[in-house]
Design brief:
29% of the residues lie in helices and 28% in strands. By secondary structure, it is an alpha/beta fold. The chain folds into 2 domains: 114 residues, 3-Layer(bba) Sandwich (FAD/NAD(P)-binding domain); 86 residues, no CATH class.
Length: 247
């Protein structure tokens, strides 16, 4: 006999997992979501939010879409991809992106009532997670997926409570592995993630500084810093990404 029973167990509280939980709860499907960490994303991570994603948020309710837009940088501030030798140095060029070109913008306006925006994962995750829990999702933080066994009637999953140090089992009709690119659920299912690894190196540094005088006149969310002749990381470019305009 399992310790907990539910219809769907979701491993991972990122955008995919929390959105799945929120949508299932909206349709009255009992579900439980677990996260091995004590809270949600603490770094910006994914941020370009397209129209189709915003349509999903609208389906969750106008208040969900409105809250996302309140925290997002609007499409007009997403601007162009800027290529430069440094933020304060010579500009090499700009490429119109994110639907700011008049022809692209017209297509965007005709395609959907929702607007593309820039919403870092640190803002998106709490909106989706809160929506899921408010609709009935049972959530457990500091709870780690260990393994699962599937049979003809459902799935029995073993989880580890990182606070008490004890294991417990969850019985569900379905198990959703929303635990990222290094998914342990996918590994246990024998579902390899295909692709070439190690194609380039990267290091992420999160900092806060007022950069308005360098970028406000040329709005963008991505500033590609190029040093001619450099091949660092296999691409020879660094990237200054806007998290908030313009800090």
């Amino acid at each position: 006999m399992a310790d907990i029973e539910t219809d769907v167990l979701i491993v991972g509280t990122g955008p995919a997992g929390s959105a799945t939980a929120a949508l299932l709860s909206s349709y009255g499907v009992a579900n439980m979501i677990v996260n091995r960490y004590r809270w949600l994303s603490n770094t910006p991570r994914a941020h370009i939010t397209n129209q189709r994603t915003m349509e999903v948020l609208r389906d969750l309710g106008p208040e969900v879409e409105a809250e996302a837009m309140m925290h997002a940088s609007p499409q007009e501030l997403m601007g162009e991809n800027v290529f430069c030798e440094s933020l304060a140095g010579e500009e090499i060029g700009r490429m119109k992106s994110w639907g700011v070109h008049p022809l692209s913008k017209a297509e965007h306006l005709l395609s959907s009532p929702c607007f593309m925006n820039d919403l870092p994962q640190t803002f998106m995750e709490p909106i989706l997670f809160k929506s899921a829990c408010a609709r009935g999702t049972q959530a457990r933080m500091s709870t780690e997926y260990v393994s699962h066994v599937q049979d003809a009637d459902g799935v029995t999953t073993t989880c580890h409570d990182r606070l008490s140090g004890k294991d417990f089992t969850v019985r569900s009709k379905f198990l959703v592995g929303a635990d990222g690119g290094n998914s342990l659920v996918a590994e246990h299912l024998g579902l390899p993630l295909e692709g070439k690894m190690g194609v380039g190196g990267s290091m992420n540094i999160l900092f806060r500084a007022d950069l308005s005088k360098y970028v406000a006149h040329r709005p963008s969310v991505l500033y590609w810093v190029m040093q001619p002749g450099a091949d660092v990381g296999g691409i020879g470019m660094g990237l200054v990404r806007m998290v908030r305009p313009w800090d």
